[in-house]
Each structure stands twice: as structure tokens, then as C-alpha cells.
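Known limitations

Files may contain more than one protein. Parsers should not assume a single record per file. Below, a two-record file is shown to illustrate correct handling: read the sequence, read the C-alpha cell line, then continue until end of file.
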Amino acid sequence: MRVGRDWALVAVLVISAVLEGSFRSDLIWRPVELALALMLVWTLLWRRTRPLEMVAIAFGAIIALSIASIAADKGSVGLYTTGFVLLLPYALFRWGSGREVILGLPIILVAYTLGIMADYTGVGDAVAGFAFGLFPAGLGALVRYQASYQANEKEQIKLREREQLARELHDTVAHHVSAIAVRAQAGQVVAATDPQAAVDSLRVVEEEATRALTEMRLMVGSLREGEEADLAPQRGIADIERLAQGSGDSPPVTVELSGALDDLPPSVGAAVYRLTQESITNALRHARHATRIDVTLDADTQWVRLTVTDDGDLIPAGRGKPGYGIVGMSERAALLGGTLTAGPQPDKGWVVSAELPRTGATV
């Protein structure tokens, strides 16, 4: 998409340079100025991937032209179209490394200094020229900082979600291990007098061990940095209907449960509850003029599917882009081997759809 826009921009600038070079009557070195503009316009295609090189080429050429103008005492030269070079300082500060910025900035300053010297009109104009020329660089640095800040925020959201999931999985695995211990002790007691009961105990031990191993796989990569354990009972499918009762009257929340929801692993049940809770919270907070929120949960032998919809405005304020809450929800679904999507519906409102494997195993 960006490549297509860059080519379109280059095409427009080439046409503009040719027209300006053909019809402007005050050009001093028409062939040179036109050739320079047509040569430099191609630097825009590589400004994101090679910003320092493009700055060196473009502003190096401007430096050479400015020196020639000063030597010939011709004043300001160049096409107005070459103003596109202001995109290059932005690109340098937006995508260039720290080393590239340090090397490229002096080239830009020298080019601006010689350009002002070639057509000096006073201190005020000189200061204004520097400020105007360096504004794209400052804007690029600001956009870079904001993008870095948002990326760090999203990473923190993912880490917190992983830690919460690890905490819930720890409780689940502890339950399975306790069941294994109890059954193993019972099997030892009855092994001499009732071998069949001992076999049944071993079967239960095997089942619990298999479930525990499945849950343990989900803990790989999850971190828990010394936080106190959450002693509250782990939420699950049975608690989803309580979310509707606690949502208030505006807008009402309806919950529809269907399918085989009884034997879900605790990690899947907890994940579905958290996804539903976050989706309802987002809808209550952001869905302007919504009259209802619908929660649909269905499960078959392989998948658990959750859908949360509202009938609010098509793109209400604050919901045009996925927020950090959706990042955390997507991370939780991905850790369980599932997927989650969120966005506006075709007609009205917002929809969150999640699909999790019934076993909760990672892909």
C-alpha cells in the first residue's frame, strides 16, 4: 500500500516538475534545475528503508547547487517542486537509526545554511527558514516517539495478560496434581483387597496427568515476576450470566449459552469469562446509543465460540482503532491456540468474535 502511494506521489511530482520547468519564466538555469528535480524525486521511493543515503544524495545536490549559485551571484535557484525534499528530514528522524540521524543532520544544516546565504534577506527570514526546514525533522522524531511508546504499551499489556493466564493455569494444574495424589493414595490402600478399584484409580490418575500436562504446555513463556497470588476463586463459564446481571439497565446484556459447555478445561473456561467480561466492559463504555448487548457462547467437540455484539453507532468515538484491551484479549486467545477479531459490524454496532480450541492446547 505504501509503495503504491509512493509511486503515485513520484508521478505527480514528475509531472509538476516538468510543467514548472517548462512554463516558469524566471528560472536561471532551466535545464539544470529541471534535471535536478527529476533526479531527486526518486529518492522518495527509498526514504523509509535508506533514509541517510537519500538525505545525503538530495541535500548533497542542493549544497552543490547552492555553492554554484553563490559563486555566480545568481540568488535563489531551483524549482518550487523540489520542496518535496522536506520529506527526507522527516524520514531520517522517523525511520533512521541514531547513528544515521547524527550523520544526516549536519548535511541538512549545511544545505539550509548555504541556501539561505544564496538568497539572504535578513535575520528574521533566516531564522524562519531554519525553523520551517527543521519542522519535518521534529515532526518525524515526535511520531517515532509516539510509535515507540504505543509499542511498549502493547507489549506491557501482553506481558500482564500472560502473567494473569499463568496465575490461572497454576491454580488449575494444582487441582489436577491434588487429584492425582488422592487417587494414587487410594489405589495403594485398596490394591491388595480390590485390584479393580486400584485399576480404576490408575485410570483416573492417567486422565488427570494428561490434563495437567496439557495445561502445563500453556505456561511455557509466561512469566510471573514475584507478584502475590490472587486468592479469589477462578472464574469460568458458570459466572458469565452474572456479568449480565451486574451490567445495569442501560443497555441490557443478554447471554445465550448452548452446546457442550460442561466439561471445558478450567483454563478455557477462565479465558472465555475474561474475554466476555472485557467485551461487555468495552461495549458499556464505548457503544454510544446502544440499546442492547448480546453474548452468544457455543461449544462443540472441538471448538468454543464466543460472540459479543452491540447495536451502538457504527464507528463511535474511541472505537475506530483496536485499543490495548483488544490487544490483551487477542494475546489471551492466541496463548490458548485460538483467535480473536474485533471491529464494526456492516450495518451498526461492534462485534467481538473469539474461537478457542476445546482442549486449550497451543497450536
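...continuing to the second record:
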Amino acid sequence: MVVRVMGEDPRVLLIRDPYRKWGLPKGHLEGEEGPEEAALREVREETGLQRLLLGPDLGEIDWVFRLDGRLIHKFCRFYLMGSADGTPRPEVSEGITECRWMSTGEALRMVAYANAREILRRAVARLHPTVTGDGPIWREE
């Protein structure tokens, strides 16, 4: 989950997925990479943002869906990330049609999936109540 300070307010980056629903960037492990490496790579691929600061682990969600007639059980670990600059660009080849910075309240209303909304709530709870351009974005536990 990517956060950027705009003015004094944190903004959350949401993506519109192939189902035209708003959600969080996510993906899967490749090769020998760990979850942190995969999270950074996937966010870079899906949003085009390159300079990312990896923050706290926000936990894991799971869900079940069908793909080509097979039942798939997927697990996904999320991390809070900071992005100070760069213009997000959706990865159209993966069906992502839009990337948009939203206020935390708007993001909570727009996220289509309940389990992703819970991750977003966890992230918002970790953000500093007063954010400045040169201060930390999140609280460490």
C-alpha cells in the first residue's frame, strides 16, 4: 500500500483492476525473492513508481477465486510504502486501467474488496496524525 504526502495530508494510491474495481497493488513471488522484494517489484510494475520506501508489514489476506475452471486459494502479504515523487502509470498489459491518489477517507470508501479495506484501515492507523514533508509518514511499533 503506497502513501504520499500531498500538502499536509497523506494520500493513498489505488489501482483499478481488470474487473474495474478499485484496490491495492499486489502480485506474487517470483523465483527466490522474498515477500518484501516481491511487494516492491509488483508495486513498481503495476504503478510505474520507482522510488519506494518499504515500511511496516500490514499483514496477510487470502481469498478464493476460479481461473480456467480451477479453484485458486491466494494469499497476499501487504506492506506500507512511501513514495515521495513520480507519476503513477497503470500497467495496462495486466488489465490495470487507472492509478489514482486518494485521501484516506475516499480510499476507504472506494476500495471494493473488504479484505483490502481492512489492510487499508491497518495502514491508516499506522500513519502519523500530523505529517510534514520532511517527517516520517508512519509510526513504527
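Parsers that stop after the first record will miss the second one. For reference, the second record is described as follows. The chain has one domain: 2-126.
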